[in-house]
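Hey,

Quick one before I head out. I ran the complex with 4'-deoxy-4'-aminopyridoxal-5'-phosphate overnight. Inputs first:
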Amino acid sequence: PIYLDHLASTPLDPAVLDAMLPWLSAATAGNPHAAHRAGWRAAEAIEGARAEVAALIGARPGEIVFTSGATEANNLALLGATPGGWPVAVSAVEHRSVLACLPELRRRGHDTALLPVDRRGIVDADRLAHVLAAGPALVSVMAANNEVGSVQPLGDIAALCQRNGALLHVDAVQYLATAVLDVRVLDIALLSLSGHKLYGPPGIGALFLREGLPLTPLLHGGGQQHGRRPGTLPTALCVGLGAACRTARERRAADAARVAALRDRLFHLLAGAIDGLRRNDPGKDALPGCLHVSLPGLDAADLVLGLPDLAISTGAACWEGRGGPSHVLAAMGLAPEEAHGSLRIGLGRFTTEREVERAATLLVRAIRARPAR
Ligand code: PMP
């Protein structure tokens, strides 16, 4: 099998697994919140991991709240940190875990606005300026999109937010494995990240919450993490996320260059063999590992199903099988017919040149062999 679905989930890095394994053994059993040596050891490991997560984004350890993943982190940010009565503005291409908070925010009396994007999936900064002219708001814009890989002009967006007293939340899930982001430089108030997009384990993520920002927790329980997110912390998962963040810091620059070269090679191989292939990701301005293409008349879902040993997708995994066209492609102005013929290919840290060549061969063969419509 060839795994080219890194935007859906990244494989666990062996170095991360090594860091986690000791914490999965009976010898290290112990509730990290308990008052005995076993508990203290686990707590110490968790605090080390929290510091690694903080270091990846230029935060302080006390500003990191572990969550079950980025879905929870996004929910916690929007539903827990939006000041009472403030409007909320989010880009039209956000992940469902952001967009799905909007009805609940409206129910609570907040105005909500969807910021349109251009053909490349980039947020319209003028529209954001217009929204912010009316007064402060919570703004949620992703660093990079999980379907087409568009990277947002976060510097401009952050500056706009700062000038207008707005709070900026950034879903940085897709961005951190290959790029540098510093919450202090950009004056970001809230940021979400996820283990399984950083070659760490699934089931763990984190919310960065700028020191001093009030937060209403989503969960109520035993007061862990200063009550901001109660629940016994999973030591192995926290350690895994910490190791993944440390590895990302060490590898992101080299990974980005290598993966971008492989991505361009794959596009070159496909475009050279398939007439009419269109590229929807913004190329060099996109996430280095993301290749998003469409072919008029292609039944992409059928193609993907016909190549079960090639892990690629037609769109966001969490939305697959739900029928409707992708809200991201629709917001970018792609016709439903174009969206129908779209493939999302995600290359990553362990992708090899041979895999890229083999994938191109399989795809070209399958596309040429498909029945005429
Ligand atoms: N935001 C983005 C941009 C994502 O790609 C994902 C994962 N598909 C999420 C949020 C949700 O993350 P998790 O799977 O950790 O809940």
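The first strand starts at residue 2 and ends at 3.

Talk tomorrow,
K.
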